[in-house]
Amino acid sequence: MTLEQILSARPSPGQPRSYDFPPFERTVLPSGLQVLAVDVPGRPLISANLLIRRGGGDEPAEFAGATVQAARAMTEGTERYPGVELLEASERLGATLHVEASWDAFFASVDVAATRLPAALELLSELVQRPTFPEADVARLRDERLNDLLQVKADPRRRVDQVFVSTIYSGDSPYARPLGGDEETVPRLTPEVLRAVHRAVLDPGQAAFIVGGDLSGLGVPQIVAAAFGALAQDSSAASGAGALPPRVDSAVDRPIVRFYHRPGSVQTELRIGHVGLSRRAPDFHAVQIMAAILGGLFNSRLQMNLREEKGYTYGIGAGFDMRRGAGPFSVRTAVQTAATVPAISEILSELDRIRESEVTPTELAAARDYLVGVFPLRFETPGAVVAALGGLFIHSLPDDELARYRHEIEAVTIADVQKAAQDHIAPGRLAIVAVGDADAVGTELQAAGFGDFEVITEEMSAGEAPAGEAPAGLDGGEEEAE
Amino acid sequence: MTVPRVRFSDERLANGLRLIISEDHLAPVVAVNIWYNVGSKHEVPGKTGFAHLFEHVMFQGSRHVAKAEHMALVQAAGGTMNGTTWLDRTNYFETMPSHQLELALWLEADRMATLLDALNQENLDNQRDVVKNEKRSSYDNRPYGAWFHKLQEHLFPPEHPYHHPTIGSMEDLDAASLEDVAAFFRTYYAPNNAVLSIVGDVDPVQARAWVGRYFGEVPANPAIPPLGDLSLPSVIGAESREVVEDRVPLPRLFFGFRAPRLGDPRFDALQIAGQILAGGKGSRLYRRLVREEKIAQDVAFFSLGLIGGASIAAGQATVRPGVDPDVVERAFEEELERLGREPVTDDELARARALIETFELDALQRVDERADRLSMYATLLDDPGMINHQLDRYLAVSAADIQAVAAEVLRPENRAVITYVPAAGVAAGTEEATAA
């Protein structure tokens, strides 16, 4: 055969090997702490993760950032190990301990070889149960957070994320604030405040300890019980907050444009959207398909239009950040300054189009086949399996949620997709939030009439910043095509 | 703890394509990874950014694949894919459910064999616009965005190809023509300039047959031009400094050093040194500059392995408000000099070794990482077996090795220092300048 004959025939797939999400075993300790053990044979590195259903979304508004700062401060010393001695002890085991907080939960985790799991969990337990919150270190972490807020202002990408959420959520909604706290709340985060958060977090009734990897020969419930069996909450701290989703409200009731002036910007950073959905949305699977077609797949409608046809951007995505409460829906991109107005026009027309007309059978198949087909790839390592089970626990989803996932995705119809778009994308309350050069395109943007228009030329006091983010610039230098 | 050994086969097709296959049936997943031995170091003045722009063109279709269809086919099969360009090489990769392996091989073969059939001005112009937006987004519109490009300029002389950034310049991107694309493809995108690694849930006999079928008839290029001598003196000779004004609230220091090439045992020692200097809260730089003296907001130290004359070792510290950047610089440099003056402690070395063992075990769990490393070691060092020796080499590094490499590399006459400072009107605690 000639090369042409060989290459002109597209291969067809072989017989798929069956894949099931690995089964897990649940044990409930007397304290109420759930222990989930998931055997992933052949994986000698064990992933162990304590998660507690209490995060930044559950803290009082005046102490915004307290859960994140408490998590960071827990590695600053414990009763038995002052300073960084505990971290050094864990490093001798080849283990890095992570403590962090999201909007939804508090996490303490370690990846370690199976033989060293008991020793690593002992250290993790000390760190979680007996931190001392030293005054000087807590003060330093406060300063670091305030300095990071300064950095947020200078970085258009982080800045637009911050001002987008403060625009779409009402001021009393936790998600309007930065997860790590802002200039107003961070100075209040004293050791006493962090200790109070710590007491409230340690609620075994809202906690799960999930262990994944090759568990042969390991008695996971016994090992976890030895380290965390005594986990208990000070009765005075019981709040029950973790059981309820945070309450959030929209601050936007008509289309608005907020242009944050950053002179000399060569691109406009754009976030367009509104308050979205919680993870427990009943039409979750239809929303997944709809979001994939709109802005999730590489060849999503937004990518094909704004990148592959117009060349306005390096990349554009859209989706729902689903939390215990209603997280944001957003379209996210950065476009060359001169393309700001046409880019927004195209985005708005794509948001209308997916509501007003049905997606094609080809589009439905592309999204469905991707989400179904990529399922086994998502769970190659124990860390990914443990994280997925953590998601089920955080959102109180049924045990068979992951086992049913592919069937649910396959059952989504074209009508379901359109209904999801109509129900959850709301052109009437879209916030168009931009960080860019208003001198260059402000007049044109105002004249475009996308909504109630305002240019903000002064710095805002709020600042969004993922705590513990790596310093910019050290993520390698490779240029990627995607 | 023992890191599992990666077993693999290593062979060449008649047309020169190097094929590496490694079986692992734990998950129903297979990684396909192809490295072309061409990177931005192959670019000549006036054509910077070309290797990377070309990488984008590789996703614009070939004779039997339409524009953007590569992504559509891979994703519809439940796979993921991308490509990246760097100083020494360009790579393309797909991770697929294992029953879709043949599709990935066919896609890679079709573009290796027939890319130019689909090339047109419209697609080139479109991807040129996309890449220019990538440059704006990743560098030009980012605080401190040019730091690595500045280090390249200071560490490598203008005639050396590591002197210029992989992303290129706007002028050169504008000048790239269809003829340039075609010539670049014919020169470098040949089977004898590529390594194909297949790792995961694969039947090697079947995979070898498919590779032979789809790639076997793609013609070699017997006349790939040699790169020329990129060797350099081991040190830059005298400290090189630059102060950069940028729209940033906090000053940030970047340090760069010429370092031994990838594959040199001294480079392994430098990697361990980086862990001891800045890996985590117990590391020397973090402990002193961030925790104790509270003069820096963050610190980092790492090394990038390269083969064209020298690697790059680099460090970073963000200066706290109200602190003199010179104070931070002196403290940072004192710690680098101390590393060359006295041996690290047994405990520091033991902690670094234990962590690196876990990092390696973690990284090698995934089939995509194993495939990328096999391709990398075959392309850059002609030794894919390094995948099984790298950890031993790290663990063999002694305190004396670290002291020696620190004394040799991290010294003032081999140092570039880039100091970012707030531009006039931008300072910590003040409002950003709003004048245009």
Describe this structure in words.
The complex is a heterodimer of chains A (482) and B (436). Chain A is an alpha+beta fold and 482 residues long. Chain A folds into two domains: 210 residues, Cytochrome Bc1 Complex, Chain A, domain 1; 201 residues, 2-Layer Sandwich (Cytochrome Bc1 Complex, Chain A, domain 1), CATH 3.30.830.10. In chain A, 39% of the residues lie in helices and 18% in strands. Chain A contains 17 helices and 13 strands. In chain A, the strands form two sheets. Chain A has a six-stranded mixed beta sheet with strand order 1-2-6-3-5-4, with helices on both faces. A six-stranded mixed beta sheet of chain A has the order 9-10-8-11-7-12, sandwiched between helices. In chain A, strand 9 and strand 10 form a beta hairpin. In chain A, helix 10 runs antiparallel to helix 11 and helix 12 packs antiparallel against helix 15. The longest helix of chain A has 20 residues. Chain B is built from 15 helices and eleven strands. By secondary structure, chain B is of the alpha+beta class. Chain B starts with 8 loop residues before the first strand and ends in a 14-residue tail after the last strand. In chain B, the strands form two sheets. Chain B has a six-stranded mixed beta sheet, sandwiched between helices. The C terminus of chain B is likely disordered. Chain B folds into two domains: 207 residues, Cytochrome Bc1 Complex, Chain A, domain 1, CATH 3.30.830.10; 183 residues, Metalloenzyme, LuxS/M16 peptidase-like (Cytochrome Bc1 Complex, Chain A, domain 1). In chain B, helix 11 packs across helix 15. Strand 13 of chain A pairs antiparallel with strand 4 of chain B.
